[in-house]
Amino acid sequence: MIDRFQHGTPVQLWQALVHEAGERAGHPLDDTRESYLVFVLLRFQRDAQLLAHTHGVDWLDALELAGTARGDALRDVGDRCLLVAGLFPDVAERRRVNVGYYIDIGRAAYQGVADAGRRATATLYEQLAASYRELVHTLAAMRRLDAPMLLRKG
Known about the structure:
The chain is mainly alpha-helical and 154 residues long. The chain has one domain. 73% of the residues lie in helices and 0% in strands. It contains 9 helices and no strands. The longest helix has 21 residues. The protein is globular, with a radius of gyration of 15 Å.
């Protein structure tokens, strides 16, 4: 298994890792959610500020925006909360909140994108909001896989 996680493009590596984690978590993701999760991992893989955000404040700030800026900001909050809840639950402990805090904010953010988006976007983000815990469980399963080269800071 480890060989599969050492060779290929970043997209191929993340996709193999997400797929394997979904299988191990007992709920493989459909292609849409798997692709979205890979997109999020690629987008934030080098974000040195990911864990520095105050997600509740970011969510409230996003709600003050309008139009595309609001949707983009809410998507970012949902994505960051997803990564923290799934990959870095120790951050929640250090901040004296539970992972459910990040799940609630992330789901609300995705639902906000769905509520404000066009039909195609709304459908995707409604699905992501509804399956947020499943996405978190998939990321948590990734932490347990033997693929440290993908989860290291770089």
